[in-house]
Amino acid sequence: MEAAAARPLQVAAIGVCAETGFWDSLRRLKLDVLGTDDSPIPITGYYTPRQYEKIASLFRICPESILPPSANSFGDRNNCPVPGTLLNTNNMRGFQNLDRALILRAEAKKILHDISSGNVEENPSLLLRFLVISFADLKNWKVYYNVAFPSLVFDSKITLLSLKFASSALSQEEVTSLSKAFIEWRKSSETTVVPFFLINITQDSTATVRHLKDWKACQGNGQKLLFGFYDHGNRGFPGWALRNYIAFVSLRCKIEKVQFFCYREKRGHPDLQQSLIGEASFLAPHGWDAPDYVPEAIGWEGETIGKEYKEMKPKEIDLSSINPASQDEEKQLMHLKLMGWRHFAVNLDKLSSARCLLLGAGTLGCEVARLLMTWGVRKLTVVDNGCVSMSDLVKQSLYTDKDCGVPRVTAIVPHLKERCSAVEVEGIQMEIPILGHNISASNAASVLDDCKRLQTLVDSNDVVFLLNETRESMWLPTLLCADKNKIAIAALLKYDSYLVMRHGAGPGIKGGGMDEVIAQIENLSTEDALGRQRLGCCFCSDIASLVNSEYTGTLDQHSTVISPGLTSVASGKAVELFARMLHHPDEIHAPGDIAGTDTEHQLGLLPHQMQGSLSKCVLSTVLCNSSSNCIACSNAVLSEYRRRGFYFVMQAINCPTHLKELTNISDLKKPFACSKISASIPVNLEKLSSARCLLLGAGTLGCDVARILMDCGVRKITIVDSGRVVVSNLARQSLYTSDDRDSPKASAILGHLKERCPSVIAEGIKMEIPMPGHPVSPNEAASVLEECKRLQELVASHDAIFLLTDTRESRWLPTLLCANENKIAITAALGYDSYLVMRHGAGPGTSRGNPDGDAAADKLSAEDALGRQRLGCYFCNDVVAPVDSVSNRTLDQQCTVTRPGLASIASGRAADLFTRLLHHPDGIHAQGEIAGTNSEGPLGLLPHQIRGSLSQYNLLTLLGYSSSNCTACSNAVLSEYQRRGMDFVMQVINEPTYLEDLTGITDLMKSAAYSQVEWIDEADDDEIDML
């Protein structure tokens, strides 16, 4: 075969095999290491000469490729390492907006520099430098990508002068000698991975293969010199690598006419029958070696030389089939890994191996167990002695009507497993021996067995949660934890207040050379093992012994009557305290922090005790050291227990006054019990049951709020959501189970509400909420308009609307509609470790004269219908219009990267705020109150906004009035909406900045810029929502 005449060089493009394992490695690297870093990543590809006669070899990108060549030891005769660059963007929009031509020229510039600097002679594979651009959609387990092999393009063209098969271009002696030379070259591990080389053939037909850096020594000696390379192709023209190779020879070696050799193999042996020898000419362009010279480039896979550029469609690979057995667990833990992108690297190994013992499987136990799974805990033991009853269903988040009559520890196990299949959970039905419950002679043996069994459980677990319903049932676990130096976290509830605390470490031993066994009993220190003063337990501030409160209290006292949202708040606090403590280097020995102090830890403060009240909207952190008179953790009690063992325990159970004598308590204080509910607190069940509540969002917040509302007595609930249940939802969104996977949330949630409260009237509506900044195409306009009208009808037909949606902009239209219809609106929004719960103010009244018809739109008052200054809405502090907050964001901003306990706390606050507002005589017109002021309301304080932080442990009640520049509730916006209706809404959806002009924000910002005023947008950038 010989070229008939000189012609432009035609080459065969390189095909790429990007293996699934590579993309999975990239997915893990992005999730576990890179985070938001989208810097270029050096990678390695693998090139090989053609191996089969009719099949071109593919360029491999495999799991080993994720390392750069400098750190990559992988490579062999069929895998020549080639350096490459990976650009992985943080979102799809970033991938789509990449200037592909620009980045390709930048890579070509690197190749040109390698040629001019001589780098290619030392590392010839640089001529094959490749580029990968990608977007790893971690949430959906997909990757979108394109691959390029940059090839230099100059004004002067490469001309092919001749082309023959090597067997016909060489003599038989030369073919034989060259075949032997190639066998030796390919046999050596040092040379076989070098894809570009020299072929030197002497006059006596002896051929040798030499390194490219020897090109100067091989010139001018009258011998035949060929520039050889591994050719991947199987056709009658050279492979893609020849283009940059000829440029190198011309520019670096100053050879205008290049004789080249395209080396191919057949089943691992040199194939000179199909290898090619040719000659090409290329004239070096003027000025190519100037420092600022940037060559043109081609090389995107699928791009055709000489044809007009067309937009490339990305390739797509689905990773959902990889490791299906472990994929569910990875999806469940993704939100914890995403926390490390901006905030805190969660120690998943420590969390998954932590053995947690939960004493109590009731209201607190259900919530704590579920939230622990959300934090990545995978070893749970649950102890309880009760059975599920009908009254438990709306209070205890895991149980359904099918569990009634079943022991809680039996029922809770499958409910945890169906939310997280990887969890190891054991349920143990047993009664915890309780102080003051006298033991009869016939029961003594079984109670003693229970004591020993509890001791074994405490010994075999790392953390013990005291979630018992009575205070005296916490005594023995507290004693055992102090004795074994185990982490103990207690949660105690009154009607509308709570205490969450961690117990301090057990005592160390004083010095003195005493036998260790004796010292453990008789020589206990007042400090812990690290020499620090011990923190107290939940009995240290009582300075009292306990008696049986179950029989001395009234029904409301020993039935654990609590405000419905309280359990969610306390459970969230307890689990967050556990996670914070587990990540502290000193763990149980960590000193207690007080709110207002500084901390360098990314999870924030680590308090000793948190005391909070729903009715007063307060949260305080308290520090209490271990008391020498404590009936549970004092040295006197621990010494006696270590000396006498369970004989002491049995004596204390039967005769609690023994503890008073042992600890030298002079006065017996009345034991802790749930506060009696005041008869002056009227709960209007009829008002609650008839209130029609619309929940926008059925994710983490939506599930919790719906369940708590039912516990409050609400019986009419409509839920709107457009999403489907995915595996990552199961542990975090309290109502869904594995049976709901891929079902619409709006329909899946209904059955779970009915299971817990058969009398609830619930409706689920699957629909998108139209949003500003999400432009609508002409084809979509009609359907979006229908959704706007449907939402308008839903708001008009309900009494209260909960804004629990995914994004900031999705709250705009509901806020506008609520202000226009004067409807109660409650917003709950989450940041990484902070939350906002607020009620929107009433809509505006009208000015005097009360004009009818459309004229009323021009006469809106600055006050509400009662003549009071209007409270602000969610958007009143913004200085920009709501826009698309998702497309340009990274995955941790798009997904639920919040501390797992946060949603429970915010949900409890939101439901509680609603019930207080509903019972206020002024309803939506009620004025906002600030914590610390006296409130005349029978249900306590009624704030406007509640802002809380888990890292700083503060709780603020704020008051803000409606802004005349608000993009959602200002008179300018409401007037325009009342005048134009949905035409106005559609304009805002397509042009959100129109709101800035309408409300005067544009002029305000110009004025601020002119005055050099720095505006701070109070929009929380961390405010993200549910997957």
From TrEMBL:
Gene Ontology CC: phagophore assembly site
Ranges where the Ubiquitin-like modifier-activating enzyme Atg7 N-terminal domain occurs: 16-321
GO biological process annotation, one example: autophagosome assembly
SUPFAM superfamilies (UniProt xref): Activating enzymes of the ubiquitin-like proteins
Residues annotated as the enzyme's active site: C895
A Pfam cross-reference name: ATG7_N
A GO MF label: Atg12 activating enzyme activity
Domain THIF-type NAD/FAD binding fold positions: 347-588, 684-921
Keywords: Autophagy, Protein transport, Transport
Family (UniProt): Belongs to the ATG7 family.
NCBIfam families (UniProt xref): E1_like_apg7 (TIGR01381)
Stated name of the protein: Ubiquitin-like modifier-activating enzyme ATG7
